[in-house]
Every structure is written in structure tokens, then in C-alpha cells.
Amino acid sequence: MKVHTFNLVVLCSMLLSTTCYCINPKFFNPSKVPNDEKPWDQTQATWYGTPDGAGSESGACKYGKTVENPPISKLTAAAGHYIFRQGYGCGACYEVKCTDNPACSGKSVTVVVSDECPWCSGYHFNLSGAAFASLANPSQQDTLRKLGQVNLQYRRVSCSFGDSIAFMVGEKSRSEYLEVSMEYVNGDADVHIENTISFDNISHVWGPTWSVFAGGYDLQPPFNFTLAQHYPNGIKGKTIIIRDMIPKDWKIGQVYRSKINF
Fold first, then answer.
1. For 260, which DSSP code?
2. What pLDDT is stored for residue 5 in this prediction?
3. How far from 162 is each of 228, 246, 258, CA to CA, in Å?
4. Quick one: three-class SS letters along 141-204?
5. Start and end of every Expansin-like EG45 domain (predicted)?
6. What is the pTM of this model?
7. How high does pLDDT run on average in the chain?
8. Tell me: the pLDDT tens digits for 77-105?
9. What DSSP state is assigned to residue 259?
10. Residue 163: exposed, middle, or buried by beta-carbon count in 10 A (0-12, 13-18, 19+)?
11. Exposed / middle / buried, residue 203 (Cβ in 10 Å: 0-12, 13-18, 19+)
């Protein structure tokens, strides 16, 4: 991943001065805070890939070319480690805007985390070319791109992808081992596939990918999934059960879609 910037500097001083919004988890339920009431944080943003592109052709979240199409429509971001969090941040939605340059429109746009920027500072956003250009005033996209880097305001917001979650069966799957990746998950929380009676050894692989191993025995599809929202500070949100998600005749690389979402 190439970072387009004239001066990508260490952002330690910025992080030290970032406002801390402290909450009492006993009285705070993030899922009930409207997006327009959430506070903004400060960081910096660069861009990568082609000027009008979706960033990486093969991002760390392994969404592939789906990010080029609606509902994401190339508005993606590669994120620093505090945002990416070993892949738990994959698919998270962030509202971003820039206001302190004449080329900036000051209007916000929602981007989806689809990649990691391992050499960026913790809260840095390396936006796709299309997302970076969307921060600009009309006809000033090239001016903003030439700057290479802008100060950015950001906040995590609730994704709204529709009524269906996509589950793709991974290429390493076999009769006794299942690997699935999730995409288009609604909400503003990390989502985990939890252990159930059917699966008592679900584990996180990387990004949006989870796996289960039957210990040498064949798995018995169809598979049900229990998905749970996990917020910061140990707060647990909504749980949903998706029944018969992966059928008996499942195939590697096949995408199966649920009929419910958060």
C-alpha cells in the first residue's frame, strides 16, 4: 500500500492532545446514541491507490472487488492499528470530514474500513482515492489530492447496509473445518460469532473471518450462527441467531446471505 503524502509524520503530539471522551459503562449504551450526537475526534488522513479508486485491490479484510460496488461504492479506508484492531475493525463505518483547508467542503462522508495501514499511526486513516476526493469542494478534488494529507475529524457511526449479512465460505474449508467471512454487518459495534451447542470452538482467524474445527470429525451442516455485538469497555449489545445459514451442499467461495441483520 502506497501512502500519497508529502509529509507523513509521526502523530504522537496529536494523539497526546486528543480529547478524551470518558464514559461510565454502567450508564452508557452506545447502541442508543444517535450518530448526530456522537463526538468528533481528530486525526490525519492520506490517500492511496488510484485517484478515483477503492484503495487496495486486495485489502486486509479480503472483501475483494465488492467494495467497488454499492452500498460501499469505493468509499473505503485503510486504518491504523487502533482502528483496525487485528481485523476486528473490518467493516466498521466512520463518518469523516475535513474543514481547515479551502479545498475541503466541510461536509461529512461515511467510509468503511476494508484494509489495514500497518505503518500508519494508530488512529490514522489512509483513504481510498475516491473517499479522499469526496472530502473536497466541487472541482477541487485534484487540489486536495495534491496536498496528500489533511487534518481529519472522524467518529464511528452505525452501518446501515440493509437486511442481509453476506457469509463467504473460505478456501481452506473442508469436511471437518469451516472458515467463513462476514460482510455488510449493520450497527456500530464489533460483531463476534459465538460458541453455541452446535459450535463450541468458534475462533477468530483474522479480519471478518471466523473458523470452527471438528477435531477430525465431519461437521454436520446446515450451520446456525449466533452473532453478538461487542462494544468497548466490555459492553455487550444485541444478539441474533441466523438459522440454516450454510446449507448441506455448501461450496468453497460461495456467498450465502442471511434474511436478518442487526
1. -
2. 45
3. 18, 20, 11
4. HHHHHHHCCEEEEEEEECECCCCCCEEEECCCCECCEEEEEEECCCECCEEEECCCCCCCCCEE
5. 58-164
6. 0.84
7. 87
8. 999 999 999 899 999 999 999 999 999 99
9. S
10. exposed
11. exposed
Across 51-68, average pLDDT: 92
**31: Cβ contacts below 8 Å, ≥ 6 apart:** 158, 187, 188, 189, 229, 231, 237, 238
Q: What is the tally of structural domains in the chain?
A: 2
pLDDT, residue 29, reads: 37
Judge if 172 and 150 occupy the same domain: no
Contact 56, 49 (CB under 8 A): yes
The model's pLDDT over 187-214, given as tens digits with 9 standing for 90+, comes to 999 999 999 877 788 999 999 999 999 8
CATH number of the CATH domain containing 129: 2.40.40.10
Q: How confident is the model at residue 18, as a pLDDT?
A: 35
User: How far out from the chain centre does Cα 142 lie?
Assistant: 27
- Report pLDDT for 40: 97
Q: Is the pLDDT of residue 31 over 80?
A: no
Last residue of a domain, one of 134, 157, 180: 157
